[in-house]
């Protein structure tokens, strides 16, 4: 019985050794192939000239505002205009009862005639005494009195003439005229109302709104940054009359007419840290009304050292900083932190963080990370630089132009 078991165990051992031998003689297992490098599209960063602009909020205000007030006391007899209608300069708006002022004028006219008659009599007497004193027919005292009476009569005539002029002015004030050409507002008084000169009763307001002002608020740091860029030569300012301003209205629509920059404030508001920037716009159709909220875009210079990067090539990290992936000469991806605060022509304007000739990833960046190897190909349609501001006819341009009010930032 024991020899049989030994023979069976030996047979099993031989079979196992045979299988191991066959396995050892088989082909070796091959390693898994390395993954292919991601395909990305890039653009080559090139410095270009980009208009320096800034967007500022603001409100419209009338070009001229005239508060029409009463300058004499009296009852309003008539209103001669339609509320909200356009009025011309010197057009009559109200009529205040002129009767008492016409009577006052007649009274001073009579007083002037009396004074002129007295002057004529005093002058004649002075002339006669002048002849008689030569023959000692009158005393020297009498002659002096006649000359003094003549001077007093002349002064009375001058006072009477001034009173006539004053009475005439007051009579003229009874017809209330518009001091400017513009659009009238609501009338504050009606026929039969009593107005007073001492209280300067407000009758109505006339506003000229063509052209119209737009008052903007600019952070003082923006002007400070632009001054630094100008001093370093990075930004070249346009001429004073070339700063183009465009408006976006409250409903998001674009105002069709461009405006011009008037001035930049010289005092910083301590409560807001901003300065006032004023622009002027033509308003022939009265689309803009005083008090409207608008956004203005001011183009005032050119940055010759900027890069334009498509929106697809720029992202933002959790800290809010703009970043981009750049492909290095060794095909490795490097992440750069950029300074990109403005947009132009649908692309980010990058002022720092890139170098001339950098390969910026604009497509396929979502599947790469810093340090990865990639296969890069040039994007077929690189971004085009936006048009630079066109100098106004006859206005100086270039770095030697007169320095305008500084409002824009990079």
UniProtKB/TrEMBL annotation:
Residues 65-207 form the Multidrug resistance protein MdtA-like barrel-sandwich hybrid domain. Residues 305-367 form the Multidrug resistance protein MdtA-like C-terminal permuted SH3 domain. It holds the Pfam family Beta-barrel_RND. Keywords: Coiled coil, Signal. Its main location: other. Residues 377-410 are annotated as: Disordered. The keyword Lipid metabolism does not apply. The keyword Signal applies. This is Efflux RND transporter periplasmic adaptor subunit. It comes from Collimonas rhizosphaerae.
